[in-house]
Amino acid sequence: MCHAMPENTGEGVEMTKLVSESPHPPVPIPNSRQRILELAVSAIERGGESAIRVNDIARESGVAVTSLYHYFGNREGLVAAAQIARYRRITTEEFVAVQQMAEQCANLHEFRQLMELWILRFLNSPENVLSRNIRLQTYAAAITRPDIATLLAEDQELQGERMHAFLEPLKARGWIKPDVDTRTFGSYYLGVMMGHVQYEVGRPRVDIEAWKRFTLNAIMQIVTEDN
């Protein structure tokens, strides 16, 4: 049975909690480069890119400025790496959580419930406003920063492969429709979820609940019907 499967209330699921409960949580690499990167990410979250000060980060991480430049080339390289690290962190946490639960689904009915909850969480959960904002900030930075654009493209390719690896075994079990291109679906899914920003920012005069139902029904088209 899918782990921690709550009732489908539409209120969202605390999936990030499941990451910390995983028997095999990701282990951070305890090295100087990782420490520098973590400090740079924290600086961006406190005050934006301008808050990244090379001398301060080098001092806090216990390395020489020359070592920082060895890892990242220059300040711009550090900023680009930190922006992508923020982006990658949220996408990895979100994906790992649902993948862990999907592996515990015993049948198609449970999997359909999980998919619906996953989608509704993205649409309803308050913490996903921050998640979408981080994505938007990364995309905005990539427009004028070729270094960030290159790293973002690489990460999006990785996400497509991750979605493919996640959904293909489910397709083999008959839970995903056989004609679904799982890599393309990964890009489509991200685009649809990012579309929710227009409501959060502009507050257009639309029936947001109807929009959510339409989104849910559209995405669920990839899942085999539960007869």
From TrEMBL:
InterPro entries on file: Homeodomain-like_sf, HTH-type_TetR-like_transc_reg, HTH_TetR, Tet_transcr_reg_TetR-rel_C_sf
Q: Answer whether the UniProt record assigns the keyword Cell membrane to this protein.
A: no
- Pfam families recorded for this chain? TetR_N (PF00440)
Q: Does the keyword DNA-binding apply?
A: yes
* PANTHER family tied to this protein: HTH-TYPE TRANSCRIPTIONAL REGULATOR BETI (PTHR30055:SF234), HTH-TYPE TRANSCRIPTIONAL REGULATOR RUTR (PTHR30055)
Q: Where is the HTH tetR-type domain?
A: 30-90
Cite the entry's keywords alphabetically: DNA-binding, Transcription, Transcription regulation
Q: Which species does the entry assign this protein to?
A: freshwater metagenome
- Quote one Gene Ontology molecular function term: transcription cis-regulatory region binding
PROSITE patterns attached to this UniProt entry: HTH_TETR_2 (PS50977)
Q: What is this protein called?
A: Unannotated protein
